[in-house]
Amino acid sequence: MSKTLAELTDKFLSGFEGCAIMEVVDSFRSKKPLVEMMSFLLGLPEAHLHLTPAECRWEEEKNANAAEHYRALGNALYDRRLTAQALQMFSTSILLAPHPPRRPYPAAGEKESLGGSETPFPPFSTEEEEEDEGKQVLSLAYANRSAMLLELKRYPACLRDIGLALRFGYPKRLRYKLVSRWARCLIALDREKEAVALLDAALEGLGSLPCDELTLANAKVSLLMVRQLCRKAASSSKGSPSFSLSAPALAKEREFKVPKLKNENRSAPALSSAVKVAYTRAKGRHLVASRDINPGELLCVEKSFATVLDSEVMGICSHCLADHKGIVIPCPECTVVMFCSLECQQEALSSYHRVECPIGPNLTGLGLPAHVLLALRIVTKMSFKKLKKADLQLRKEVETRKPATLGLNGEDKYVSSYRSVYHLNTNQAQRPDLDLFNACVVAFVLLKLLQKSGRFFCGEEGQPCTPSHEDLVLVGTALCSHVLRATCNGLTIMNHTRVLEKTLHVEIGLGLFPTLSLANHSCDPTATVLTYQTGSLMMSLSFIQKGGEVTRSYGVSHLHMERKERRALLQEGYHFLCDCRACKGDWPLFKDISNSLTLICLKCSQPLCPLSLQCRNCKIDYNKPLTKKEAKVSNRYFWMEILHKVETAKLEFTFSANPPVNYDEDEKKVICDMLRLLAKYTKHPTKIVHAVRNSLDLWLMFWAPANYFR
Ligand SMILES: [Zn+2]
Ligand SMILES: [Zn+2]
Ligand SMILES: [Zn+2]
Ligand SMILES: [Zn+2]
């Protein structure tokens, strides 16, 4: 059994006697630079002795016999027409099948070519080395699964599996089976011309097949039968085929429609032009409205810099966090990490997973929390060379640049990058010493694992190298700072799926969004955030006046928790004393909030006197109907008219959007009109405002999956 992180730490601490332990603890004071702490820890022989994780392997490794066993099970299930169960068995077989040794990993930072040439076309005529039957479990399993996918009418996934079966050496003499399946897919996808070209080329190539007469005859019959299905495009399409297999075969089964901002903020493109980044000493960098913002406006659309998938989550792509619905493309080396497409597999293998794969069993065995894995991911996404260069430069920026400009690149733009991540808050000075000790210890363990991986510390030419003490201090310090950063900036990623009539929202991982991280917390936030896969959206929940702060919730709300409790939680998790308007005014809990509406003065926002309906401050009288001329200027209103408007809007809201049903723009308009009206004329907080905001939140949660995640 491998030891968990907590066990390693205990062992490390128990190695010290009374005085010595004080000296160790003393070295982790919040005022000390992290680099000093890391250097100290790296100098302790006890750390090297006790904090080095032991050798560790996955319970199940790639194994041709096991893969063949599951493939046989799949075939048996299919004989009983249990297609879905058979599909699962074939997927397990694919997961366990050893991959051919041919370049299992592209070099760091380089993508393997995914071009059409990877797949032989026409599928019979290419010169290839003689097939070794024993090594073909992988291609056979892909071929078997493609048959299930055809039955289930999942054509793009079927095409992809056919492509993979060919790529991994499907026996030549059986390829006619794949070709007829491939053609059937094309026909189903209304691409008959391509099907005809494919079949004609295959029929022509049959002669070069290394097999007996009977097989040849069977192949011919099989291909001709599919050829007959091509009624619409019956005429032969000789000549070079104008398509390639690679496009449909390697693409994702389902593509995402990522929402777009109407106008981007030029210096921070993830933000809408209605929002800008501001800085004050008290608030640090934060987001403010650069014009009046209405409820329901899309304010931020951002892709994460790094994301990690929770280890116990099944059925989700490790790279893009899309639901792959059981159709996995596994890592060529391990049996744990799975992808939704070859594209995702290649992207992961050309960066972080290349480094993390050999140490995967350790990472799981240590029981590391998601924010630690996210910190590691930030580092493994970079090569050692790049990290070293960046860290030296960024450390200087912290000392020389104004805090307001931290994170801006050479073109004065704030974009998702290692730089903007590096300059996110760690709250080091506000943290208890124990936090820093723990962060250094976990960084030390990660550092040991990076060394063990053998794929992180590489020289100029990409060859593995032994890091110097300085290199270890540098990478260890980076890891430690990212651990701190990830705890206060990591955002939970939700998966949204529709099961029958219900939409389910489940936590599946953690992501880092440099721009969204700039939004401060409020216990009564002005915006709400939705995360999905590797992306996030932020939408305004209320009317935000120009110059007002755009805030989101870090997980606590004044509606359900007393101020004291909220402040304690925020202090512990995020290291600040919340001074939002709900905290300042010590707003009541939802159950104690007033049900009735109080009208306010348009000029000073103070409540009107309930008897005279005048503003006590400004002496403006709201108890007089407006003349036509006055109505145009609108710096005053007639209370009866406004109450009537509010009541009408309330009725419409209650009947059509509480809760939302259709998640369309009409419904959103009803909700947002109501919110705008309440924000302009009535005093906050009230129960009704929260009910309407809740509807908008729900609307976003349901609308997004229905419209974007198809
Ligand atoms: Zn993916
Ligand atoms: Zn792997
Ligand atoms: Zn607060
Ligand atoms: Zn007033």
| Range of strand content | 5-15%
Radius of gyration (Å): 31 Å
Q: How would you describe the shape?
A: flat
Tally of alpha and pi helices:
26
Distance between the termini: 43 Å
Structure overview:
By secondary structure, the protein is mainly alpha-helical. 44% of the residues lie in helices and 9% in strands. A three-stranded antiparallel beta sheet has the order 5-12-11, with helices on one face. The relative contact order is 0.09. One zinc ion binds at residues 331, 333-334, 337, 353, 357, 360. Residues 317, 319-320, 322, 339-341, 344 line the site of one zinc ion.
Question: What topology does this entry show?
Answer:
Blueprint: H1 5-14, H2 18-26, H3 34-42, H4 45-50, H5 64-79, H6 83-96, H7 137-151, H8 155-167, H9 175-188, H10 192-205, H11 213-229, H12 246-250, E1 264-265, E2 268-272, E3 275-280, E4 284-289, E5 298-303, E6 306-309, E7 329-330, E8 338-339, H13 342-349, H14 352-356, H15 360-365, H16 370-380, H17 384-400, H18 418-422, H19 433-453, H20 469-489, E9 491-499, E10 502-512, E11 527-532, E12 535-540, H21 563-574, H22 581-584, H23 628-633, H24 639-656, H25 665-681, H26 687-708
Antiparallel strand pairs: 1-2, 3-4, 5-12, 6-10, 7-8, 9-10, 11-12
The protein binds zinc ion (4 copies).
Residues 601, 603-604, 606, 615, 617-618, 620 line the site of one zinc ion.
